[in-house]
Every structure is written in C-alpha cells, then in structure tokens.
Amino acid sequence: MKLNIICFVLVTLLIHSSCTEESLTKSRQKSKKTRPVNLDIADSQIYFQGWVKYYHYGNDTHYEKPPMLFQNNEFFKQRIPKNKLDQRDNFGFKHIPNKASFFLVLYNKSLSIFSQRNNPENNLVDTLRIDHIRYVPEDDILQGGVRDGKDFSFGHCIEIFANVPSFYSVKKVYGVGTAETWWVCTNTAKEKEYLLETLIKVRVKHQRLRNNGVKITKAVSQNLKRRKPGIGSMIASPLPKNDNPGSSPVNGYWVLLQDWTSCSKKCGGGLTYQQRMCVPPKAGGKDCVGEPLRRKPCNTHNCPSVNSLLALINKAKGKSSLAPKPIVQAGVFSNKPQRYSKCKVKENDAFIMTKVLGSPEPIRKPIRIVMNLQTISIFNDDTYQELYYSFELDKTRFSVKPGHCCFGIKDNWKDETICGYKEYCGPKTQNIWADGWSNDIKLFKEDCKVEVKSMKTGNYFAEADIQDEVEEQTSEIMQEV
C-alpha cells in the first residue's frame, strides 16, 4: 500500500514537472511570436543605456551559456562613501555594482561598452558596429544576427552574431569577415526585452538604408551567410531588385545619411551640414531635386571677449580687468580643455576630412578625438552623445600625413584623416600636433600597458559568484564618512 502511494506521488510530481516545463516552453514561444511586427524606429543618438555583463569570442559557435564573462578591473579601484552606495537613477547604479558589470550604450551606429558611467569618453573599452551584426530577416526576426538567449541567475542574455572585417577595403562588403559572437546579459527580464527589440529594430533600420529600402528575408540572409571570406567574395552579391517591367514611374527620393551636424563654431558664425543620398528613379521617374550636401549657418552671434566680460565683473569688485594667462586652452569647436594625462587620456578638438557626395574636395568636419588605453574614439559633439567611430587601439594603424598638422588612423573598417586646429599645429617647420599624437599613440599602445592593467579581462564566473559579489566586496569599496 505504502509503495503504491509513493509511486503515485512520484508519478504526479513527474507529470507536474513535465507540464510546468511544457507551459514555460509554450509561454516563451508565445512571447516570441507576439513580438511587435512593426520594425520601424525613430532616429535617435542613443537608444539604450544600462549595466550589463558581457563576453565575446572569435567564432560563431553556439553555447548554451556564455563560456566566460569579462571582468571590469575598474571595479576594484572605486571608493564609494557608505551613504552613496545605493545611489541609482533610471539607468541603474551610479557606481560599478560588481566586478562583472559594464555600462552599455546603444548608439545609432554602435553598441559601446564602458568601464564606468562617469566620464564615458575616457572609459570606452569595447565597440560593436551595428553594420557588422549579421542581417536580421524581417520574416523571422529571431533567427538572424540578434537572438533571444537564455536566462540565468547572473543575468538575462542576448546572443549577437557578427562578421568583423579581416582587412581594410575601400569597397565595403557586408556579411564578410571574421565571425564573432557576443553575449550581452541584462539585470532584469524587462531590460532584456527592451534591448533585444530595440537592437533588432536598429539593425533592420541600417540594413534597409544600406540596401535602398529592400527588406531582407530569411532566404536572402541565408544566402549572404554562405558567402566565404576572401578576395573573390569582395564583389557583393546583388540583393533582389524590386523593379517590375511595365510598372508605373517612380520618382527618385532622398535618404538621410547624416542629420544636421553640430555647429562648427560656438559663436562668431559657423556651419552645420546635412548629408543625403539619392535613391535613383525607376521606370522613367524624375531625378532627386537638390544637393546631397546641404549646409546652413549657425551660432552667428558675436563671441564675447574674455577681457570685456572680466571688466564688467571686476568693475563691481574694484579689481583690475586684465585677464590672467590661461592655464589650459579651450578648443574652437568644443570650448573644452585639450586634456592630456599620461597613460590615462588624451583629448583634443580636431577636424575629420570627410568625403561627401557631390563635393570634389573633402570637407573639414569638427570633431572631438579621445584616446584611452583601450580605444581612440571620435565624437561629433562636445557632450559625447554622438559617437562617430571608435578604433580599438591595439588594432589601429597610425601614420603622419604629408603636409602639416594631419595624421591618418586606420583599422579593418575605417580609414580616416584627422587634422588639428591651427591654434595647436605650431609652425609649419615643425609638425608639433601630428608628431605629438604619433608619440602618444605609441606610448599608450605599448609602454603604458606594461605598467597599467587592462580595464577588462576574461574570467569564468559560477552563477552564484555574480549574485554574491556586492555583499562579498562591499567592505573593499566602501568608505566611512
């Protein structure tokens, strides 16, 4: 009798377990099927910000869970007053919560990883270009380059498959290069859901723009995935055309490549630029009207004189109106200091020479260039919200350009020419600014890393390790106040 009761209980538990698992599976499948069909997304400089745990490796092998998580070595350097230990806002903790956490920002063109929230321009450690993520088929969005990973006690994970170019080519070929797999794990299921859907929409937006509005299907995506790296594959396979013989004329139309840039000057009259691309007309339609490069004046007000401002202030105080000699110089573009701290950061205002459609000569576009021990980053603005591109320092080639005050910087995807403002270039007989960058890049790339530990390292974490991290190490990072 007792044996029968025991058997009945065991069978009941097994059935309940099986039903529960089946229920969870159906729930997940239902969740995936009910994701928004509308893949459109509005233009924005930043789409997501939050703390994540992450890892990436150089192949597209699928694992059930991340084989490792990067360790944030900046965690061990922070000292937080006890009364600020729980400070947080809409984006999470204001300090690094544990040794596996990094701060992720999803920009319009890249997914960027920072070691800290404060002064992000100094702490960028990793970047994945949106264009390097494999295509997302619009008829099966979870079977492309961005996939819904599993949930673990240390985080809710997304799996990203990318192809990073193996060598530089003037003709950009998408989907060809070295395979990379990224695991990005958020702290909550809600954050994961939002990041997953947003990243899918941003990737779709890029692939539509790249392919003149043609939607990528699962069949097209599989065809591109089968292309092998090599010289022969540098000729891109044509995407399906939507031309239809005998169809009505379709006029050409403009596609926005870059919206109005930051003004080239803060005062005294500058220029802002907008770059467009014409999608050609079909079946006898009319050409686009206008120019691909548009410009308009901005910040036309007069620049205030330092001495005149001080005169007004000091007049009331009865002091001399003579301006003291500045300790640091501010750039014409950003009005921020031209910073340099050995083996930590180098930061300058500069110009990037940009080739645009319809213009025979490159234009000088103002930027902010920032170097730390991991990256050289180019920002379109002085608030560091518009990241143009980030070069990985160890994989970047540098050269001083012929002429005066310009240098070249190149990786397997970008080849850019950066020039300095004349205020910092020095006499034409001495290439002070470009030679200075040459020396400092060598210093940051080689000599500094002998003394300074990298911001991130690969470490395996048992699931419980991450959960207990804050309790275990609070005493190490906390200061009594």
Concise structural overview:
By secondary structure, the chain is an alpha+beta fold. The chain has helices at 2-33, 189-210, 218-225, 306-317, 422-425, 432-451, 463-467, 469-477, and strands at residues 46-57, 69-72, 80-81, 88-89, 92-93, 102-107, 110-114, 124-129, 146-152, 155-164, 178-186, 253-258, 270-279, 293-298, 340-341, 345-354, 363-371, 375-379, 387-392, 397-400, 406-410, 415-419, 456-459, 478-479. The strands form 6 sheets. Strands 15, 16, 17, 18, 19, 20, 21 and 22 form an 8-stranded antiparallel sheet that branches.
Give a quick account of the main beta sheet: strands, pairing sense, barrel closure: 8 strands, antiparallel
CATH topology tier name of the domain at 46-230: PH-domain like
Distance from first to last alpha carbon: 68 Å
What sort of overall outline do the alpha carbons produce when their principal axes are compared?
A: globular
Going by CATH, the architecture of the domain at 46-230 would be: Roll
The overall pLDDT, averaged over residues, is 76
Low-pLDDT regions = 6-34, 226-243, 320-331, 462-481
Q: CATH H level of the domain at 46-230: which superfamily?
A: Pleckstrin-homology domain (PH domain)/Phosphotyrosine-binding domain (PTB)
Helix content: 10-25%
- Rg, please? 27 Å
The number of helices is 8
Task: State the total count of DSSP E strands.
Answer: 24
Percent range for β-strand residues: 25-35%
Q: What is the CATH class designation of the domain at 46-230?
A: Mainly Beta
